[in-house]
Amino acid sequence: MLKLFLPLACGLMLLGPPAGAKDEPDFVAALANAAKADKIVIDAEQAHRLKNKQLTAAMAWHGASPWISAVNRGATDTFERYGVKVLVTTDAQYDPAKQVADIENIQALNPDMLLSLVIDGISAKVGLQKTVDSGTKLVLLSNPIPGFVHGQDYAGIVSDDMQGMGQKAAEAVNRHLQGKGKGKVGVIFHDVNYFVTNTRDQAFLKALEGYPGIEITAKKGFVKEQDTSAIASAMMLRNPDIDVIYVAWDSAAEGVVEALRGDGFSKVKVVSHDLGVNNLLDMAQRGNMLASVADRPYEIGATMARVALLAELGESAPLFTLVPFDLVTRDNIRDVWQQAYQADVPRIINLALGD
């Protein structure tokens, strides 16, 4: 999934609407009625109409990373297929104030469509509202904007299947422990009110309840990524019989893998989310990293573009459209990387795999 960052802290993207906020839809419940990405289709007649419109688009991203580059390529390739001119792509460098300025500059260009992953929905809301009011069709990546109304202020939200990813992570833990029929798990969760990670973490915990032989012996939240190493060391000091540690996302799991390696817990495995080179390298070398559940960023970008294009034709989309995910293990690193990024796996991982 996306590179996570908390503004002015560990940096995740934006916080989702506050829990229990008035007049906000139940976004978790809405996931049950989400569309699948492969159902968002542009037919031949619609394609012809779109090509005659000479549409324009802009993309306002939160930062730069291999993940967002893949999202951007997916969107750009799709727009080009339908004759859309991309006016500008911005990188906010994980700075909410810069993204506000980026959105203001985009508004001056008056694009027909805007795709964005917003860092801080509250600070960006005014600029986005002006952009929408001028006729631009807005499609969001993963995170809602507080107070925005689906179908009125934005065409839809494209995201990974957060609940499915959490459930798949629990399945990976169970599969690893099947030989013993039981096991002990440590959980390092994201202790911030943030829609994406909260939903995944809760789905993992709930799914784990379905495996009665597996016991959660330690559970600790974090705000800053750099704190996970110390959390893991303390967790293992108190619970040296833990078999597997679940961590909310890949870059946060890097500190956990380092701590386990440094403290001599070579047999303790880690399960997380997303694709990161460091942890995939550890997985390829048969280290602590057992498995990760990863989304498909190229497909996310392509789907966002299709939702926006259909909105230009007056077609509505569900509140959420979900892109598939993959369980990554040593056996399928190359295939999943290719699926996610539409590119070959980095050479260093290829060398470590060796086969």
From TrEMBL:
**Protein origin, superkingdom:** Bacteria
Q: What is the official name of this protein in its record?
A: Periplasmic binding protein domain-containing protein
Q: What PANTHER family does this protein's entry cite?
A: D-ALLOSE-BINDING PERIPLASMIC PROTEIN-RELATED
* Chief location bin: other
Signal peptide positions are 1-21
InterPro entries from the entry? Peripla_BP_I (IPR028082), SBP_2_dom (IPR025997)
* Pfam families recorded: Peripla_BP_4 (PF13407)
Outline the extent of the Periplasmic binding protein domain.
63-311
Q: According to its UniProt record, where is this protein located?
A: Cell envelope
Q: Source species, please?
A: Bowmanella denitrificans
The UniProt keyword set, sorted, is:
Signal
Q: Which family does the record assign?
A: Belongs to the bacterial solute-binding protein 2 family.
